[in-house]
Write a structure and sequence with these properties.
There is one protein chain. With about 550 residues, this protein is of the alpha/beta class. It folds into 3 domains: about 230 residues, Glucose-6-phosphate isomerase like protein, domain 1 (Rossmann fold, 3-Layer(aba) Sandwich), CATH 3.40.50.10490; about 180 residues, Rossmann fold; about 40 residues, Phosphoglucose isomerase, C-terminal domain (Orthogonal Bundle), CATH 1.10.1390. Helix 8 packs parallel to helix 13, helix 13 crosses helix 14 and helix 14 runs parallel beside helix 21. About 50% of the residues lie in helices and about 10% in strands. It binds 6-O-phosphono-beta-D-fructofuranose (F6P). 6-O-phosphono-beta-D-fructofuranose (F6P) binds next to loops. 6-O-phosphono-beta-D-fructofuranose binds next to loops.
């Protein structure tokens, strides 16, 4: 169990409040003028990744007060408990062991006295065998043809992680086999995806921890008919695999037991890409690349577990996040990958962070009176620059940002790459420096504008700057670096959950949505509406019934 402590009642929090007042009106750019070694002091290098947090409202004193906060809330002990299989997901009575899934050491990991590592190794071996056979064509469809398309059906954690990683590792894709992802209950998702695919050469993976999720089951049944209508009922045996903890339900669906991959209740959905939920990744890039992903995550796990807090990337990311969310009242946090391959990374992080720390009851069961998890959002650069960056630069809100990029283009498109990185670097500099009235005046004078016109235009062209950013720059986006990057954010979210005193590994809010939809579905399909609804919902159901009839 994790120690419960209201962060706001710690000595460090009171001290941070004072420090917030003394620093909030200062200029980040002046910190650099006052200290030529600022970058040296406020950046960390981990393998091929550089984490630069110098463009923030931070100094040595604030950092050490935050570390004091970590000590007061027993962060070290919480980290130990997670890694050692303690039942820290208390509301669901489960351990939290995604770190065991990528444990590359020979150190056993125990859950209730049982070492989980042999089971993990067995599943990984099975994934290796299966993915290799699908890629090589040893495993075939019912008519003896090699699979050319694999469709993963899942949602939330059973979709976002593998879909994000598969997209991110596009340059590493195995030729001649294409991996697709279907998640939405909107039928157009599966219809559009299957359009043009050949049932004879299509393999489905049904990925669902519970094997009861409405979206996934609806899409799985559709896929089963899509196969059996053309190839006959017996073909289901050849064209389906499943990843689930609910083996009984999988068997009932008619999936060949050889093609069923288990995992464990101590793997949270949004932390499950490292388990057999990662099977589509292993097929898309090959098992060796999947192993490199796990290795990268393990390396970050060791950095997180063993580094002093003041040199610990996930811890510092978490502390900065708390700083802006709880003291500067920023409320949102933008993640801006300057990488088209990381297109789905912000969406993945939304689930990771918001499903974990979007809570309002603390670990004592009491209502929380301070801010918990931020709203996470973002889009790849440079696209975002031509869309929402206006608000980042000149809006009334502070939006702390993570700028993420690989230094090198895997495709060696050097001209594109230099321009991409120039934009990436220019934005963090501009967000911090802004543009003063004097600078604008000079610029407009140089452009030949008249004095009166300049004075009218001036206020609109001034940028206040002083917008904080983190920069995460790595050598290139390969499986190992990606593994480290994801694990870095996972641990950031964990640290924030510990500080905010919430249970980060349950998601009761989402469970509510699942049951409510079932009630409404009855009222949409039944003879008459029997549910107890407000007049808005009731009338909307009626209108839908009307619009949908004939
Ligand atoms: O959205 C809620 C949730 O429980 C997620 O946490 C999970 O990843 C997703 O639903 C899918 O659940 P399952 O894997 O059981 O189908």
């Amino acid at each position: 169990m994790l120690t419960s402590k209201n962060p706001v009642k710690t000595k460090a929090w009171a001290e941070l409040l004072k420090q917030y007042r003394s620093v909030k009106d200062l200029q980040i750019k002046n910190f650099f003028k006052e200290d030529r070694d600022r970058f040296e002091k406020f950046h960390i290098v981990f393998e091929d990744i550089v984490f630069d947090y110098s463009k923030n409202f931070i100094n040595e004193q604030i950092k050490s007060t935050f570390i004091q906060l970590c000590d007061e809330i027993s962060l070290k002990d919480s980290i130990e408990k997670m890694f050692s299989g303690d039942m820290i997901n208390q509301t669901e009575k489960r351990a939290v062991l995604h770190t065991a899934l990528r444990n590359r050491s020979s150190v056993p990991v125990f859950v209730e006295g049982k070492d989980v590592m042999p089971g993990i190794t067995r599943v990984l071996e099975k994934m290796k065998d299966f993915s290799t056979k699908v890629i090589s064509g040893v495993l075939k469809g019912s008519t003896g043809k090699k699979f050319t398309d694999v469709v993963n059906i899942g949602i939330g954690g059973s979709d976002l992680g593998p879909a994000m990683v598969t997209k991110a590792l596009t340059p590493f894709h195995i030729p001649d086999i294409k991996v697709h992802f279907v998640s939405n209950i909107d039928g157009s998702h599966i219809v559009d995806t299957l359009n043009g695919l050949n049932p004879e050469t299509t393999l489905f993976i049904i990925a669902s921890k519970t094997f009861t999720t409405l979206e996934t089951m609806t899409n799985a049944l559709y896929a089963r008919s899509w196969i059996s209508d053309v190839l006959g009922q017996d073909a289901v045996y050849y064209h389906f695999a499943a990843v689930s903890t609910n083996i009984d339900k999988v068997k009932k669906f008619g999936i060949n037991p050889e093609n069923v991959f288990g995992f464990w209740d101590w793997v949270g959905g949004r932390y499950s890409l490292w388990s057999a939920i990662g099977l589509p990744i292993a097929i898309a890039v090959g098992f060796d690349r999947f192993s490199e992903l796990l290795e990268g995550a393990y390396a970050m796990d060791m950095h997180f577990k063993n580094s002093a807090f003041d040199k610990n990337i996930p811890v510092l990311m978490a502390l900065l996040g708390i700083w802006y969310n709880n003291f500067f009242k920023a409320e949102t946090h933008a993640v801006l990958p300057y990488s088209q391959h990381l297109e789905r990374f912000p969406a993945f992080l939304q689930q990771l962070d918001m499903e974990s720390n979007g809570k309002s009851v603390d670990r004592e069961g009491d209502k929380i009176t301070y801010q918990t998890g931020p709203v996470i959002w973002g889009e790849p650069g440079t696209n975002g620059q031509h869309a929402f960056f206006q608000l980042l630069h000149q809006g009334t809100k502070m939006v702390p940002c993570d700028f993420i990029a690989g230094a090198n283009s895997i495709y060696k498109e050097e001209d594109h790459q230099r321009k991409l990185i120039a934009n990436f670097l220019a934005q963090t500099e501009a967000l911090m420096n802004g543009k003063t009235a004097e600078e604008v005046r000079e610029e407009l004078e140089r452009a030949g504008m008249g004095r009166d016109e300049i004075e009218v235009l001036l206020p609109y062209k001034v940028f206040e700057g002083n917008r904080p950013t983190n920069t995460i720059l790595f050598r290139e986006l390969n499986p190992r670096t990606l593994g480290s990057l994801i694990a870095m954010y996972e641990h950031k979210v964990f640290v924030q959950g510990v500080i905010l005193n919430v249970f980060s590994f349950d998601q009761w809010g989402v469970e509510l949505g699942k049951s409510l939809a079932k009630t409404i579905l009855k009222d949409m399909e039944g003879e008459k509406i029997s549910g107890n609804h407000d007049s808005s919902t009731l009338n909307l159901i009626k209108i839908w019934r009307e619009m949908n009839s004939g």
